[in-house]
Sequence to fold (559 residues):
Amino acid sequence: MSEFIEYSLLGILSGGVTALIALSFVLIYKGTGVVNFAVGEVMMLGAYFYYAATVMFGLPPVVALALGLIGIAVLAVAFERIVLRPLSGQPPVAVLMATIGMASIIHGGVEAVWGGDTYSPPPLLPRTPLIFNDILIPGAVLGNFAVAAVLIAGFFAFFRFTSVGIALRATASDPVTAATLGIDINSALRLTWVLSAVVGTVAGVLIASSAGLSPLLAAAAMSVFAAIILGGLDSIVGAIVASLLIGWVEALAAGYLGGKSRDIVPFVVVLVILIFRPYGIFGSRTIERL
Amino acid sequence: MSVAALAIENIEVIYNHSVQALRGLSIEVPAGQIVALLGSNGAGKTTTLKAASGILPFEIGRVAAGKVRFFGEDIANRPAFKLARAGMAHVREGRHVFADLTIEENLTAAANALAGRKRGRVDTDRVFEYFPQLRERRKQVAGYLSGGEQQMLAIGRAIIGEPRLILLDEPSLGLAPLVVQGIFSIICRINREQGVAILLVEQNARVALDVAQYAYILENGRIVVNGAPEKLRGDPDVQRFYLGSGDTGEGHASFRDVKHYKRRKRWLS
Fold:
C-alpha cells in the first residue's frame, strides 16, 4: 500500500511540470487557434540560456532564470513581429507550419552552439527530500511541483481578475469584436506568445536543473500532447487535471509494469477516455445560442 | 453648422480586390442625432458600418475611394481599436458577446475603449441603469443569456466606452417584437441622455423610422432615397418595398423598376 501511495505522490507531483508545458500549449491554442509545435524547443532554448548564464557566466540561479526569461520573451516578441504578423489572416495551418520551422531552427541552433552532450546545470531549488514514514519524495520533485503550482495559480488569477487578462480572453474568443471595443489585438497576441514562451521556459529550467540538459529535452513536450488532448485543447483547467492524471498513470505504470510501459500506458488511457469523451475531459463543446 | 459626427463622402469599398460592395456612397450623421440606414439584404448597410469602424481589413476589404470623417477628422486606414478609443463604438450584427466571459467581464473588456481617456474602476452602473436585468445576472456567462439580453449586453459594452458615436447594426435581429420595442426605447434614452450620435442599420424599417431623425435607403451599394422619416413614410415606393403596405399583389417587383423615374423626379425638384 505504501508503495502505491509513493508512486501516486511521485506521479502526481511530477505532473506539475507537465501541466506547465501543457499550459504553454493551451495558451497559444486558445489565443490563436494554433497548435504550437515549437513549445518543446522554446523550453529547451530557455533551459540552455539558464545553463549559459549559470555555468558559463557564473551567475546565481535565480538571476540566471530571470535572464533566461527575458531572453526568451525578447525572442517571442521578435518571432511574433517578424514571422507571425505577416501571416495574420492566413489559416492557422500556415502559422502551425511556421512554428514547426521555428522548432527546427532552434533545434539546429542549439546543437550548433552547445552540441548534443548532456549538461547538468546547477539546481534552481533546494534538494532536501521529504521523508514521511517510509515514503521518500525527492526535493526536486517537490520543488518543481511547488513552482508549477504557484505559477499556474498566478495565471488563473491573471486571467480572471486583471483587465489585461480579461482582454486576452476576449481577444481569444472574438478578435474582431475585441478590436471594436478598443483592444489592441496585435499586442494581445504578442503578449500571448510571450506568456506561453515564458511558461515553457520555466518548465524547461525546472526539468533541466533536476534531470539534466540535452537537446532531448524538447521531446518532453511531445509526451505532453496526451495530456492536452485529454484535457480538451482549449481548456486550461482540463490541461492541468489531465497532466496530473497522466503523471499519476505514468508513475503507476513505471512502478508496477516496468520502465518501458510508462511511454505506452498513458496513451492507451487517453485513447480509452477519448472514446467516451471525444472533446476531452473539459474541452468545450462551443456554447451556441442564437 | 456644427461638425458631423460621421461624414462618409463618396466611398467605394472593395472586398478581396474584386468584389465592389459600395459605389460612391455618401451619408452624414449629425452630432447627437439618430440616423437610420435602411435597405434589403446585401445592399451594403453592414459594409458601410465596417468602413466607418475600421474593421474592413479583417475581411480583406478596403475603402478604395472617398473619405470617412469622424468629427471632421479623416480616419482612413486608422485601426479599429484606435477608433474605438477615440469614441466610436460599433455594435456588430449578431451581437458577438464573448460567450465564455461573464457579463461583468464582457463590460471590463469593453472598458479598453477608455484607454488614454479615463482610468479606474469599470463603471458598470452606467450600463445596469439602462439594462437592470443584466445586473442580476452579472456573474453569469454571456453565452447562456437570451437573445434580447445578449443584445442589451452588446449595447452595454458600447456605452461603457463613453462613445460620441454608436454604429448599431440590426439590433432587432431575431428578437420578439416586444423585446425590440424595449431595446429601441432604451436606444432613444441613451441617445438623449448621453448625447451620443447613432447610426442605426435596420431591416425593420418601421421601428427604425420611428426613432430616427433622418434616414437613408440603400440599394446595391448606393443611396436611392433619403430624407426625414415623415417624408420616407409618405413615399409610395418606400411604403411598398420597406414598410410592406401600399398596393401589393402585382407579385414580384423590385425597387430598381421604379427608381429611374423617382430619380429623375428628385433631380428636377
